[in-house]
Amino acid sequence: MANTVIGSTIVIDGEITGDEDLVVLGTVKGRISLRENILVENSGVVEASVETATITVNGSVTGDIRASERVELSTSCHVVGDIRAPRILIADGAAFKGNVDMDG
Amino acid sequence: MSAPKTVPGLSEGTTIGPDIQVSGRVDGEEDLRIEGRIDGAISLTETVFVETSGVVVAQVEARDVVVSGIVIGDVTATNSVTLNSGAKLVGNISAPRLIIADGAAFRGEVAMGDAPPVERRKSTVARATRTESAAESAPRRAAPRKAASRPAAAPKARPAARPAAKARPAAAPKVDDSEITVVVKHAALARGQTAAKKKPAAKKKKAKKASKKARARVPARGKRRVSRRS
Fold first, then answer.
1. Among A41, A83, A94, B209, which one is least packed by beta carbons within 10 Å?
2. Chain B residues with beta carbon closer than 8 angstroms to that of A8
3. A10-45 pLDDT, tens per residue?
4. Angstroms from A91 CA to nearest CA on chain B
5. What does the alpha-carbon distance between residue A13 and residue B40 come to, in Å, rounded to a whole number?
6. Helix residue ranges, H only, chain B
7. DSSP label of B119
8. What does the alpha-carbon distance between residue A63 and residue A15 come to, in Å, rounded to a whole number?
9. Per-residue pLDDT, B112
10. Is residue B153 pLDDT above 60, yes or no?
11. What pTM, to 2 d.p., does this model score?
12. How far, CA to CA in Å, does A91 sit from each of A6, A54, A88, A100?
């Protein structure tokens, strides 16, 4: 399914752009700009501004999130930053600090 | 378009898919499979696989590097570098082991500088020369050797590309002074510096001798030949 996996010991410092699903188990700093889905796993740490279609966060995201479809914050996630998306799902147990804009 | 489900523990390493471009630094301690594009720098302690669709415009440092795609940039490996058929590499390679398969395209320098220095056999010519020249060239010998052993010195691949020539003088300090001298001369010859200074001097001396001999036969202007008869 997901072709691109960023492993748990990988640290990427820069920009990621693409047209594919992305699974983050490691650390990404900088910017992410995708047109598909992003999954930030429990061990994933994203210190970046994210632009994507959908994003599911199980780990930690520090930075603004702009999704064109949907944002999902699961239990035990930790998000600090603004979220702009037409649909948002925040599960019980998620930690979130920031603004929410659902203007789409 | 549902979000991808949780991926079962993928311990085999990291994959950068064919439609992904990463611009920046990638550091890690696991295998990295590149099918997309990476610009910048890669530094891993494991293996980097550049697949056929992968394009890497970066400096690569890893333990092993296996290239089946395109790499533009210096590659430094602590163990081995493999270029498979269809690989294209433009840049310098610095690795102790190298495999280039038929069909690979490569342009750049190769430095296998981590190989042990060649043992130098004893030389019989002994000449007394100033030890200053030996001392002066010792730091120069040490410096390129250091550059060769450090895997990160990829841009210094040129001085490291002469470890064979300089490894012999570097092995010399173990033996006595006369050997150092001879070896220093050899190193100087390889460099073409010091020897060049001494050569014209030697040539001049020889030329003088030859001309003196020639003059002895041809008398100076205005004087007749001094013969033994008279």
1. B209
2. 30
3. 899 999 998 888 899 999 999 999 888 999 998 999
4. 15
5. 10
6. 131-149, 157-160, 163-171, 177-191, 194-217
7. P
8. 14
9. 87
10. no
11. 0.57
12. 24, 16, 10, 15
What is the separation, in whole angstroms, between the first and last Cα of chain B? 120
> ipTM of this predicted complex?
0.81
Residues with Cβ within 8 Å of B90's Cβ and at least 6 positions away in sequence, in order, are B71, B72, B73, B106, B107, B108
Query: How many helices (H) and strands (E) would you count in chain A?
Result: 0, 13
The pLDDT tens digits of the residues spanning B81-108 come to 999 999 999 999 999 999 999 999 999 9
Task: State the amino acid at position B59 in one-letter form.
Answer: Q
Q: What is the mean pLDDT of chain A?
A: 89
| CA dist., res. B4 & res. B87, Å (int) | 33
CB contact at 8 A, A35 and A29 = no
Pick from B175, B191, B164, B194: which is nearest to B123 by CA?
B175
Interfacial A residues in 19-78 facing B (CB < 8 Å): 19-23, 25-26, 30, 36-37, 39, 41, 53-56, 58, 69-70, 72
Taking CB atoms and an 8 Å limit, are A53 and B1 in contact across chains?
yes
Q: Chain A: give the shortest CA distance to residue B16, in Å.
A: 5
> What is the C-alpha separation between A93 and A61, in angstroms, rounded?
15
